Amino acid sequence: MTKWLLYGANGYTGELIAREARKRGLEPVLAGRNLTAVKLLAEDLGLDYRVFDLRDADARLSGIDVVLHCAGPFSVTAPPMIDACVRTRTHYLDITGEMDVFDYAREIDGQARAAGVVVCPGVGFDVIPTDCLAAALHQAMPEATHLRLGFELPLALSPGTVKTILDGMAAGGRARIDGQITPTPLGGRTARIDFGNGTKPALAFPAADLHSAHHSTAIPNIEVYLPMPSPLIRATRISRRFTGLLARPRVRDAAHMLIDKTVKGPDANQRATNSAHVWGETTDPAGRRATARITTANPYRLTIDGALTAVTDLLAATAPRLGAHTPATLFGADLITRLPGSGPLTISPTEGTLT
Fold first, then answer.
1. Dihedral, CA atoms, 325, 331, 337, 342, nearest 10 degrees?
2. Exposure of 197 by Cβ count < 10 A (0-12 exposed, 13-18 middle, 19+ buried)?
3. For labeling, which of 138, 315, 320, 340 is most exposed (least CB within 10 Å)?
């Protein structure tokens, strides 16, 4: 009998996934470091549980076929869990939106293949929709040399998402230029984009797609955009002088504590009703461009469905493609349209240029 383990089950998104899994008749082993919280949730759902620190992960993954890792910050927690999964020959999935995790996954690709396991970060809103759009655009325009992606989120965000955005901004601007991740001035690249809900000013943002979309498409030049009011774009440019301050551990930890106290995440009604809009654009050497758009379910609803689809598909696979993957390279560019509340994905030629 195949078993899967959900680590970080007592977190905001982890608990949502655990409860939905139980509704679907799935039986994950719940896990995390907080004995009280994990035990209470497991008893409430009638599920097995394991409590352990990631330093002890090897011993606690016995009998587990797939790990779904939901405990952030992923830049800290994902590498030791990935390492433990490779050593114990356990497939690894997570819901991260942190670019360093995708970079680490690529670094251990050979070890994962040798161990006979899959390592696939990003099976949530980050990065399923943008990754699938990137792959679909590449299929439509395989000669593309430039890729731009972006997404418009509902206002209600979880603490983990807010922390990821803050940490990304603290690291400064980044883009993939000629195949390399390159520092850029924060707020230095803007555009006016119709994400699918009207044209809005947008700001280039150092998102995980700089790694994942490059893995999925090999396109050498990639930027990612978030819609942002013009006054806030100007404020972001002014804030460049503070990025070093925000990167200091004590300042970052204090900001994270404040987020935990003040940000609660969307409620059930918001998760059921608030959608997101995702956009992508490719350009080839001749200047031809193609644009893709899709409206998706609420990011947290999509993360629940995406994560559970990834788990069940991987458990059912008789010969999965081994090594490091993105959602699109492992499950196909149509993964996003298989998820409830998302689609259709449209691709069309476009005119005009970014500003």
1. -50
2. middle
3. 340
* Among 126, 133, 202, CA closest to 158: 126
Contact 85, 91 (CB under 8 A): yes
CB 274 within 8 A of CB 266: yes
Taking only the tens place, the pLDDT of each residue in 178-209 is 999 999 887 778 999 999 989 999 989 889 99
pLDDT tens for residues 135-166? 999 999 999 999 999 999 875 566 766 666 66
What single-letter amino acid sits at 314?
L
Radius of gyration of the chain (CA): 20
Q: Are 216 and 328 in contact (CB under 8 A)?
A: yes
Burial, 83: exposed, middle or buried (Cβ in 10 Å; 0-12, 13-18, 19+)?
middle
Q: Please name the amino acid found at residue 217.
A: T
Alpha carbons 115 and 53: distance in angstroms, whole number: 23
